[in-house]
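Researcher: We plan to redesign the surface later, but first we want a full-length starting point. Tokens attached.
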């Protein structure tokens, strides 16, 4: 596995390093306490698990807020667009051409 603890490397990230270090500490604690009393193991692992959870939570960026949009009013504005008369700009021409659709269906 790559050594990401050197901060001079491309892609090195302090938050990822902390999460990986906490995961390794949890694994080492599990291996060291194998075969012991379950209540003792649980007590020793609870702090390691909470450290790992907080490390993962720190890696997640804050979500941006979006404005509250009234979708019905947006659709009403779309329904009011005039789609029957279209002005088509033609390059290298001084005038625009207006096209009226035929009423034939």
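Model: Full-length starting sequence:
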């Amino acid at each position: 596995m790559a050594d990401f603890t050197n901060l001079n490397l491309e892609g090195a990230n302090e938050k990822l390093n902390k999460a990986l270090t906490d995961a390794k500490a949890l694994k080492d604690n599990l291996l060291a306490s194998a075969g012991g009393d379950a209540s003792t193991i649980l007590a020793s692992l609870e702090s390691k698990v909470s450290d790992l959870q907080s490390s993962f939570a720190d890696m997640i960026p804050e979500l941006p807020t979006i404005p509250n949009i009234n979708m019905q009013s947006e659709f009403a504005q779309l329904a009011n667009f005039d789609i029957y008369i279209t002005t088509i700009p033609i390059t290298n021409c001084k005038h625009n051409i207006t096209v009226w659709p035929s009423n034939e269906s």
